[in-house]
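Quick start: what a row looks like.
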Amino acid sequence: MKKISLLNRFTILFPLALVLFEFTVYIANDMIQPAMPAVVKEFGVSSAWIPTALTAFLIGGGTLTWLLGPLSDRYGRRPVMLAGSVLFALSCVAILFSSSIENFIMLRVFQGMGMCFIGAVGYAAIQEAFEEAAAIKVMALMANVSLIAPLVGPFLGALLISIAPWRIIFVLIGLLAVGCVWGLWRHMPETVDAQAQAEAIHQDHFVIRLLKEYKRILTQGSFVRAALVPPLLALPILGWIGVGPLVLMSHFNLTPLAFSMWQIPVFTCLIAGNLILAKVTGRWALDKTLKIGLILIAVAAVIALFGGIFLSNAYLPLVIATSLTALGEGLSFSVYYRFALTASTAPKGLAAAAVNLFFTVVFAAGVELYKIMFLQAGLFGYALLTALLAILVCFLARISIAEALTLRQTAEDKIA
């Protein structure tokens, strides 16, 4: 299919349907966060289970990632994406009947599987359907819409649990999920060439070839470096989402409503960064916003450490540092994600699956590490981990930027 270069009311319908699904999947996590103290109380378990609900969600987000990209390369993006939206809707219904924390956590894994389809299938379809500049703009704008979830989700969740049991959250999410199924069925195009699908389906030894492809791509140093940057860049925000309720509500005794209000500066900065990126793409060199983002992340690390060492009884430095990190992420995440997908010559579905496999491992391990650091060393431990992540991101990002720009220049020289 011919790639789309202009955004209008017709070409934007598929991205809107996809981002509505992304929003619904993410808000299923964000709305339940302020309700987690009520959930663990109902099931009679300790507050240490609160971050585990996010960890389970993130694990679910990686269980199918390795397979979905290649499957969509083989059978098409559209049928795989539709199957994922149906699976998520069914998991929202099932969680209404959970009778223990173990049942709840297991069903959170199934809900998290919805993320597999977004990254490994939906994002790959966007990259295939749109030309580069349009794809970056679409990804940045999609990020803004999906980021409404962590911005308004905790607030809506806090309001709902003040008037109704926590299960009402998943009733509303289930209804949204049904709307997503219809929207994707109605507007998602097939971006994989039909002839290529037919040839792939008739090839033998799919699993063996798949494992060989993964071995090849995961041993390519430039790809691994590029693929690690986006999840490491986003990890402090995931740590804030997962461990934030433990820090603000359990440690500082904030109410669910007060907790939700402190999400506003963080996710407003994230949205602002994405809006700026969408506006300047095509005007600025890609590495300009990336360098600004790295400066913001470095400053945030200094503020977090200062607060952890000298203001261990105050959470404001942590909020400021996380907000600056969010602004830096918004300015650069979509570009780093594009760099990761183009760092290998593997099919886009496989590359997207491999990138999102990194997301799952980094996020699941990172959230648990944030929890351990906070439980063992308080705000200092939390801030120290944030600072170490900033150093690692700055190191890998500089290498990734140089490699991506070199690759781009080589491609342009070949065309010339």
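That is the whole record. The longest helix spans residues 348-415. The chain has a mean pLDDT of 83.
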